[in-house]
Amino acid sequence: MVPAPAPSDDGPSPEVVLEALDDEDCRTILQHTAEPMTATDLIDACDISQSTVYRKLDRLCAASLVREQDRINPNGGRVTLYERDFEDVTISMESDDTFAVTIDRPPRNAGERLADIWSKMGDEL
Fold first, then answer.
1. Where are its TM segments located (predicted)?
2. How many domains, the chain?
3. The domain that contains 37 carries what CATH number?
4. Is residue 60 in some structural domain?
5. Whether the predicted model's global pTM rises above the 0.85 cut
6. How far is Cα 78 from Cα 16, in angstroms, rounded to an integer?
């Protein structure tokens, strides 16, 4: 596969988004992630193998279609939850004849924004 060109901003390239949406397993995962789910829950709900679920979640996260959140597990350690992170995806043609992608996201409250920051900090450790 040819790598997608770098996007002009911090968002994913149209190619990355379209490849994720064109994938049947990715679409199945998106249908089940209206509410946060663990990868284990997704394996059961989607009837997809463990290695495939993790590959598809990586693809969906790279396309900014799924949000990964780490939560502290009361029994120790962290648990990672995945949730669909868009309300609408628009692919458009720019004035310079290039494609652009716009991803409309649901509003986040202060607690969700703080959880996102905490999750990203955990990745740095």
1. none
2. 1
3. 1.10.10.10
4. yes
5. no
6. 29
Phi, psi at 105, each rounded to 5°: -110, 150
What are 7-62's pLDDT values in tens digits? 345 689 999 999 999 999 999 999 999 999 999 999 999 999 999 999 999 999 99
Mean pLDDT calculated for residue range 99-116: 79
Q: What 3-state class would DSSP assign to 125?
A: coil
**β-strand 66-72 against 99-104: which pairing, if any?**
unpaired
Long-range contacts of 15-23 (CB under 8 A, 24+ apart): 16/62, 16/63, 17/63, 17/64, 17/65, 17/89, 17/91, 17/101, 17/103, 18/91, 19/59, 19/63, 20/59, 20/60, 20/62, 20/63, 20/65, 21/63, 21/65, 21/89, 23/56, 23/59
- Domain contains 94: yes
For 17, the 3-state DSSP assignment is helix
Residue 59: give the domain boundaries: 14-124
pLDDT of 32: 97
Q: CA-to-CA distance for 119 and 69, rounded, in angstroms? A: 6
Q: Would 1 be classed as within a structural domain?
A: no
Residue 6 lies in a domain: no
